[in-house]
């Protein structure tokens, strides 16, 4: 077969060559050992938490080696394309502390870097040059068959074959057409796709060293995969090979779902005479399905936290998600964090080698704990600013309330904070309104202050609170306040803790029970920050008013 002739037949209008592009996009000038990584989302409308998991590896590895981390938009599947989705990806990367050094930087904004365009739909001419070269080399052929199988059928057939034979053989009959037949088909205007002429031997394997999975045996590729679709646009298989080559990616970090087609991608690199980059196939972030008890992929359909936007909407400090994901990536991060509570997570000695290949479980309880720790260390002034910023976007009414009571809110947030053992009650900013509703008249639910448990009889509650209100002196310091509370309680039949423990039946309750009655009567809650501070913040008249309300209504 005269491949040169075939290439001209198929790509008569393509004049640029791979060499032209190699020259246009020369080697990067980076220090030895610098890694070039990229995240390459398809613009599908949201940025998956699993994509951030991968992007964290990219960013940490690039930063660790003084390399480059860039963003490429893989939008060749026009059917899946969604308006504004590329912006969402960029914005989420920026919001979650993984801002790329290079690449796509938002619709209508200038791209950063010399290796663009970083949007695949703008690189079709480049792909065509490489497609033509593959034809010239006798490694690609036009396929005129109509695709009769749907995507799902192909997947199923492949899985079955893989199970039965350990490999997939998909040689397309069009690979045997001669030049005359091809010419005839073209003359008839038949649509065609370009396919790889695979040369693998189904009985042969080779060793591949994945940065996460380690050394594995792979079957040689026997699939004539599509390199250019009939609309002249390449799918991922050719597009990423070309892009990662010309953009000089050194490590491709991508999801486990690509592992099965790695042998085909490697064959495309080899066919073009290009050394492939290193690969790191990331495990899949999973979730325990509560209904079935099974592990499944974290999915947008069932899990709101699969969309990174969820964490912004809920008002998590963004580093909480970074730290949580880092925890899933390198399990020694948790110990490091404990030993270094005040260092930024970026100081952690991250390593790709430490990533386990088993699928991690996403656990909201754990991220809440991490977030509570982070928020507990934020000084009150800054914390208020963060909460107001969040509320300005997600709860404007609450923002107004906070701004109208700024001093008060700051003092409230300062209770049990900025000390060695700060209070860890807030996991995300959307909780704040509820946690402190009793401190703002706008949200205070009076009736909740009547919710005493049954431990102490209504009669005794009434008796004690009546005396407490009588004895109450707003100007007491903390020590005096507590002594006074204790004295009132003891006069009403409550005992100090020690005595109470020995003979509980002799007493109405303990002093701790008494102070809890005050707490519930003033706040409607059984747990609050330091009660004395709360009383100080509520002020004399509100304290009296709330106690009186309870006495009147209990
Ligand atoms: N566009 C591909 C995806 O969204 C990217 C895979 C890769 O990172 O190479 O899955």
Characterization of this structure:
- The protein has 554 residues and is mostly helical.
- Helix content is 44%, strand content 10%.
- The chain has 23 helices and 16 strands.
- The protein has helices spanning 3-10, 18-24, 49-64, 85-95, 124-136, 151-165, 179-187, 236-246, 262-271, 309-314, 318-329, 333-339, 364-376, 380-394, 396-404, 406-414, 432-435, 458-471, 478-491, 497-502, 511-523, 531-538, 540-553; strands at 36-39, 68-71, 102-103, 140-143, 169-170, 193-196, 205-210, 214-219, 222-223, 226-228, 251-255, 278-282, 286-288, 295-297, 494-495, 509-510.
- It has a 3-stranded parallel sheet with strand order 1-2-3, covered by helices on one side.
- Helix 20 links the parallel strand 15 (494-495) and strand 16 (509-510).
- The chain is elongated and about 110 Å long.
- The chain starts with a helix and ends with a helix.
- The model has no long low-confidence stretch (mean pLDDT 95).
- The structure holds glutamic acid (GLU).
- Glutamic acid binds at residues 40-42, 74, 236, 240, 252, 254-255.
- Glutamic acid binds next to helix 8 and strand 11.
Strand content: 5-15%
Biggest sheet details: 3 strands, parallel
List the bound ligands: glutamic acid
Distance between the termini: 97 Å
Which secondary structure elements does this structure contain, and how are they paired or packed?
Blueprint: H1 3-10, H2 18-24, E1 36-39, H3 49-64, E2 68-71, H4 85-95, E3 102-103, H5 124-136, E4 140-143, H6 151-165, E5 169-170, H7 179-187, E6 193-196, E7 205-210, E8 214-219, E9 222-223, E10 226-228, H8 236-246, E11 251-255, H9 262-271, E12 278-282, E13 286-288, E14 295-297, H10 309-314, H11 318-329, H12 333-339, H13 364-376, H14 380-394, H15 396-404, H16 406-414, H17 432-435, H18 458-471, H19 478-491, E15 494-495, H20 497-502, E16 509-510, H21 511-523, H22 531-538, H23 540-553
Parallel strand pairs: 1-2, 2-3, 5-9, 11-12, 15-16
Antiparallel strand pairs: 4-6, 6-10, 7-8, 13-14
Helix pairs in contact: 1-5, 3-11, 11-13, 14-15, 14-16, 18-19, 18-23
The chain binds glutamic acid.
The site of glutamic acid (GLU) has 9 residues, from helix 8 and strand 11.
